[in-house]
Specification:
heterodimer, A: about 650 residues, alpha+beta, Methylamine Dehydrogenase, Chain H, 4 domains, nine-stranded mixed β-sheet, five-stranded antiparallel β-sheet, globular, B: about 190 residues, mainly alpha, Ferritin, about 0% strand, elongated
């Protein structure tokens, strides 16, 4: 018979098992936090006040579970880890000293396969089939990959551009060539033209100054009016013949910024737009700045100008409709003249466009790309990959530096991040504005960008933590736009931007600062979803891998559906379309979403779930008829639902499942 | 595995030791930034427009953080560290600049002119002078990169590159703001 003591012990163990108590005395239990099904964020936020430390910092996790934390190998320790690329069951992690290849077949135990020493910042990495591309921008990168740097200001051994490796055997990469560019390669983007299977294309973005023409002939870093061949105000497109990748070379340098006319702010809050519309409705005179922003002319100016028009025709009295029409026609001419005067008075000033892009994210399946280009976010048409064309550009007085872009899976939304301060500054303090160093979310309609909202890491960070919006990727939750994003020492944040005007955080992971006394650069450079897990490149601490946990915001069925999407290789800047195989998990994920959004009533939700359970258990023939019958019922439900599209998508999934049952 | 700041600095620089040019760049950029912060600090008291006040607030935030970063870099390498005002110019190797102003720095007369301006006049002067000031910072980065052995240290290269792109981007923004003022002023 158990004693009272034994019963207490048993109870404690049972509670621990249910709540998944970890043996680690950490404040918010990594690695095995309790499942939290609530729909409110933890309060107070456990990311505030975490203990400092390089490898022993305090940690906070919400709706994420740490699978592994792996420090860098010897040659890479203490040197910045950068971006990630994925191929098969490998993750390639860039580092300012080269790159490491990890086998993540078991994500709780990554195995180092290759540690390739070849210094160059930033070592941005991308894969395409058997090829690996690595960016080099810093002044110390060498063609021969040796580590002594390049002290000469002009040198034939300096590498600034793209290195190309053959990774047919990923344990022994072969360095097969490189392409030198004038500004080096800060980042790059691999683009595959569905119509051109013989080549791959690589867009080069370089943000460092242009190098000497004595080092690389043809490099000119002046304004276009001084030399039309300038390396500024363009991107470079490299063509890689797949049969002979060593012959990769620059094929075009499109000037996608030419004649840029975008507003100085996406600005116009809806109140401003309404005000302008109301003024115009009352017949106000407006003018338009060269970058497309319309504004109301002051009435005293209009009165003065109308008087002049009346005088000019030697008339008297009130201005006529013809006088008004004449003034309206004259206004754009006046604005153009003033613009020319301003530009003429400053011939050496830069044209009002950016000189380069920081990063370009392409989505070939929809023929679009998002360009994050200094003071602008751009929407590009890339149906001809060698010749991208600008469709629209947005600017924003809250955005310091347009850094990267992510399209949603439908290609109807575009999210830009602002790397205010370059990633080395602590821009997530409680005193930093929420609109600065954030993401800006746009919808895309008729080839134009429409601002909706900002998203910024909700937890304030210390002055010892560099923190700003950085690299992230979509998570293939069906029917929703969910993304994971790195915020340097702000950690990683998973958020839902299905409602573009109201993005919301649904999971996070964070560590305390490296050092409590001063800022030491660290944190997550990139956090990407790949084949069922979230992989994060921690600048100072190595490779982190996480699993999504079900929560009040995300069901296990939705996670299972996300895990059913598989890629053979993945570069985040080259978006691939998610296509979900028809599975019971996918159907149940849609049912969970309809329950959450009240798109179907509770009794229907219950009935559909019961029908799915019995269909799954049924024989092949029984399953097919049960699923078809359920699909027919749901198609009937759709018209009465506030979520008709989702109900029909569910019905379509069931019909596909029924067909697959045969 | 936790290194002291000085030990970490040594480790950072073991591969590509920093040079006198790197130290000089960090040292002088603190003074350069300090003047921008003084200029931007006048936006409220000199009745700048809301858009110029936003720009000024951003400049103060960004350049103050960069000053702290550069001070720490110098401190960790046991180099002389100017204060946040940048006015402590007791720099053993300041001969590279001597009595001449750093590129883009406002003269005393220009600072006085800006300090006297109010409202739209302040906006116009501020933008004009800040464009000049930012162009100077870009020139300082170009000079650094054109110096033997400089910016091999990844921290120096990254900071200098960030200053280059951030200020180039801000120059373009200020050019647009100036044009807006010009058009509105003519109405």
């Amino acid at each position: 018979m158990a004693s009272a003591y034994d019963r207490h012990l048993l109870l404690a163990i049972t509670v621990c098992l249910l709540a998944a108590c970890a043996s680690h005395p950490r404040p918010y239990g990594t690695p095995t936090p309790a499942i939290d099904m609530s729909t409110t964020a933890p309060n107070p936020d456990p990311r505030v006040g975490l203990r400092a430390g390089l490898m022993n910092a305090g940690e906070a996790a919400w709706n994420l579970r740490v699978l592994s934390q792996t420090p860098p190998s010897e040659k890479f320790a203490g040197v910045t880890n950068s971006d990630l690329a994925f191929t098969g069951h490998y993750v390639i992690q860039g580092n300012y000293n080269g790159y490491q290849v990890w086998d993540i077949t078991d994500p709780s135990r990554p195995v180092l396969k290759t540690a390739y020493l070849c210094p160059a910042s930033q070592s941005d990495v991308s894969v395409y089939k058997n090829l690996l591309f690595v960016s080099g921008e810093g002044l110390g990168g060498r063609i021969d990959c040796s580590t002594e740097g390049v002290k000469d200001t002009v040198s034939k051994v300096r590498l600034r551009g793209i290195r190309v490796f053959d990774i047919s055997d990923i344990t022994t990469p072969k360095y097969i060539g490189n392409v030198q560019t004038c500004r080096g390669s800060h980042t790059h983007t691999v683009v595959v033209d569905p119509k051109d299977t013989a080549n791959a294309y690589v867009y080069i973005s370089g943000s460092a100054p242009v190098r000497s023409p004595n080092e690389l002939p043809g490099c000119v870093g002046v304004m276009p009016d001084q030399d039309s061949t300038t390396a500024l105000f363009r991107i470079e497109v490299i063509k890689v013949p797949l049969a002979h990748p060593e012959q990769a070379a620059i094929v075009s340098s499109p000037r996608i910024f030419a004649n840029l006319v975008a507003p100085p702010r996406h600005g116009p809050a809806s109140a401003d737009i309404a005000e302008l519309a109301a003024a115009k409705a009352k017949g106000a005179f407006t003018a338009t700045f060269p970058w497309g922003e319309e504004f109301v002319l002051p009435s005293r100016f209009v009165d003065r100008m109308l008087d002049s028009v009346v005088q000019a025709r030697q008339g008297t009295g009130a201005p006529t409709a013809a006088d008004s029409a004449a003034l309206r026609a004259a206004i754009p001419v006046m604005i153009a003249r003033m613009t020319a005067q301003r530009q003429g008075s400053n011939p050496n000033g830069p044209p009002p466009g950016p000189t380069q892009c920081h990063d370009i994210t392409v989505y070939p399946a929809v023929g679009l790309a998002g360009g994050a280009c200094e003071g602008y976010g751009m929407l590009l048409d890339i149906r001809d990959p060698a010749h991208p064309v600008r469709l629209d550009a947005a600017s924003d007085s809250n955005f310091s530096y347009w850094h990267s872009a992510t399209l949603n899976n439908d290609g109807t939304k575009l999210l830009f991040s602002d790397e205010w301060g370059g990633g080395g500054g602590p821009k997530c303090r409680a005193t930093d504005p929420r609109e600065w160093g954030a993401d800006a979310i746009f919808t895309i309609a008729d080839g134009k960008l429409h601002f909706q909202s900002y998203y910024k890491l909700p937890a304030p960070q210390t002055p010892q933590e560099n923190c700003v919006a950085h690299n992230g990727s979509l998570i293939p939750i069906p029917g929703r736009d969910v993304m994971v994003q790195a915020w340097y020492q702000g950690g990683i944040s998973v958020f839902d931007w299905t409602d573009a005007a109201h993005p919301r955080e649904i999971a996070f992971f964070d560590r305390g600062p490296v050092d409590s006394t001063q800022m030491v650069g660290a944190g997550s450079w990139s956090a990407y979803w790949y084949n069922g897990v979230i992989v994060s490149s921690e600048i100072a601490r190595g490779l982190d891998i996480f699993a999504l946990q079900p929560s009040g915001f995300l069901s296990q069925n939705e996670i299972d559906a996300a895990k059913s999407v598989h890629f053979d290789e993945f570069n985040t800047q080259g978006q691939l379309r998610f296509v979900w195989p028809s599975t019971f998990a996918l159907a149940r994920a849609y049912v969970d979403q309809l329950e959450r959004s009240h798109g179907l009533g509770p009794d229907r939700i219950l009935a559909v779930r019961q029908a799915l359970t019995s269909a799954e258990r049924a024989s092949v023939a029984g399953r097919q008829s049960a699923l078809t019958q359920l699909a027919v019922q749901l198609e009937g439900d759709a018209s009465g639902s506030s979520e008709a599209t989702r109900v029909n998508t569910l019905a379509k999934t069931l019909r596909d499942l029924a067909a697959a049952a045969l | 595995m936790s290194l002291s700041p000085v030990a970490r600095a040594r480790a950072d620089s073991a591969r590509h030791p920093y040079t006198a040019a790197d130290v000089s760049f960090m040292y002088h950029m603190i003074g350069h930034h300090a003047q921008a912060i003084v200029m931007a600090g006048w936006a409220d008291s000199h009745r700048a427009s809301p858009s110029v006040r936003t720009l000024a607030a951003r400049i103060i935030n960004a350049q103050r953080d960069e000053i702290a970063f550069m001070q720490q870099w110098l401190r960790n390498r046991l180099q002389p560290v100017p204060g946040e005002t940048g006015m402590d110019m007791a720099m053993p190797m300041s001969g590279s600049h001597g009595d001449t102003l750093m590129p883009g720095m406002l003269t005393e007369a220009q600072m006085h002119q800006l300090d006297q301006a109010r409202s739209a006049d302040f906006d116009r002067s501020f933008l004009t002078f800040m464009i000049q000031h930012h162009h100077g910072a870009v020139v300082m980065v170009q000079n650094l990169f054109a110096t033997y052995g400089a910016a091999q240290d990844e921290i120096v290269f990254k900071l200098a590159s960030d200053i280059n792109v951030d200020q180039t981007t801000e120059i373009a923004r200020m050019e647009r703001m100036l044009l807006t003022l010009q058009i509105q002023g003519a109405l």
